[in-house]
Amino acid sequence: MSEFPTLQTERLILRAFQMDDAPAVHKYVSAKTIAATTLNIPHPYTREMAEEWIGTHRDAFENGQAVRFAITLGDSGRLIGAIGLEITAAHERAEIGYWIGKPHWGKGYCTEAMIAVLQHGLDSLGLERIFATHFLKNPASGRVMQKAGMKYEGRLRHHIKKWGEFEDLEMYSILRSKTESDR
């Protein structure tokens, strides 16, 4: 991979995170409602954690392991969330993950960002498969996946443990090449 891409949609600009995004990341991600709906975000979440997380992005991108975008409003440049691909190059696949700050829920921003990142992954990065999971108790995330064109694959029962409780995950994917089930 070379230069970090910037993606633009009708209302959003998806760009590389910068260290000065850490206060906004901390503000949004420290909300327990965000941590409760994601696998890898702890609670409480400190500003130092935000800085450490942003600090991992360049190496992950340069090593072909991940591309993580700051979701910003196109008109103001204000950071409202994050979306990224965790890449497994040997299998030409990636897992897409995302979060949107609670004040921006229900406005279609996540779906808009996801469509752009899926297209980038399939077309520009040449991935064959991009998948995502969401907690069964977070059906809004599943609706984002459906609206972005991902297909439901099934439920992974008690697949992970979050805060001492087993959680079921719903799995979705999208493929670059068409298969029998897509016809």
Account of the 3D structure:
- The structure is a single chain.
- The protein is an alpha+beta fold.
- It has a domain of 125 residues: 3-Layer(aba) Sandwich (Aminopeptidase).
- Strands 1-2-3-4-5-6-8-7 form an eight-stranded mixed sheet, sandwiched between helices.
- The mean pLDDT is 94.
- Strand 1 and strand 2 form a beta hairpin.
- The longest helix is centred in the middle third of the chain and has 16 residues.
- Helix 1 crosses helix 3.
Brief description of this entry?
By secondary structure, this protein is of the alpha+beta class.
List keywords for this structure.
alpha+beta; eight-stranded mixed beta sheet
Q: End-to-end span in angstroms?
A: 33 Å
Poorly predicted ranges: none
CATH architecture of the domain at 7-131: 3-Layer(aba) Sandwich
The CATH topology of the domain at 7-131 comes to Aminopeptidase
- CATH top level of the domain at 7-131? Alpha Beta
User: Structural class of the helices, strands and pairings?
Assistant: alpha+beta
Strand arrangement, major sheet: 1-2-3-4-5-6-8-7
Q: Count of DSSP E strands?
A: 8
Average pLDDT score: 94
Number of helices: 6
**Rg from Cα:** 16 Å
Shape: globular
Q: Write the CATH homologous superfamily of the domain at 7-131.
A: Gcn5-related N-acetyltransferase (GNAT)
Order of helices and strands: EEHHHHEEEHEHEE
How much strand content do the residues show?
25-35%
Helix content: 25-40%
Major pleated sheet: 8 strands, mixed
